[in-house]
Amino acid sequence: MDEVEFILEEAKEGMEKAITHLKKQLSNIRAGKASPSMLGSVMVEYYGSQTPLQQVANVNTPDARTLSIQPFEKSLITEIERGIMLANLGFNPMNNGESVIINVPPLTEERRKQLSKQAKAEAEDAKVGVRNDRKQAMQELKKADISEDLLKSSEDEVQELTNTYIERIDKILTVKETEIMTV
pTM of this prediction? Predict the structure, then answer.
């Protein structure tokens, strides 16, 4: 029985990781509003090494269409601008001598559809991850030295777990798509 619980717990952990990864990936997909997470991939040259932007500056959103970046050291302003340009996010940073300001342009309908497709692809990847965890759990259950009744009920449990996680992925995707398509 312990072996079965271990297999189920392992499958659940893997599925949870797929959900976590999906959320992280979706947070990088930009919806209409400005958010500090949009700059999560920006690296800045800081004393000779590449450093994440969040470690060298505060990123704020004064309003829904603007990102304000306050560097901890004013000498970093040009490096921050360069980092944003190199990250290829489609932003045009401006500096006022003390901070870097980014006006986030509104998304076009075509771009919204592209982002929606990207979100669907990420969700599908997460579903594949969940299904792979199910497959692995099923194989391990078959290898386990357990009765047929226990095997059947355990397989049903794994399938139920899989269905639950697939539903969660669909809900997360629906929320993100709504966020993307909202003008």
Answer: 0.72
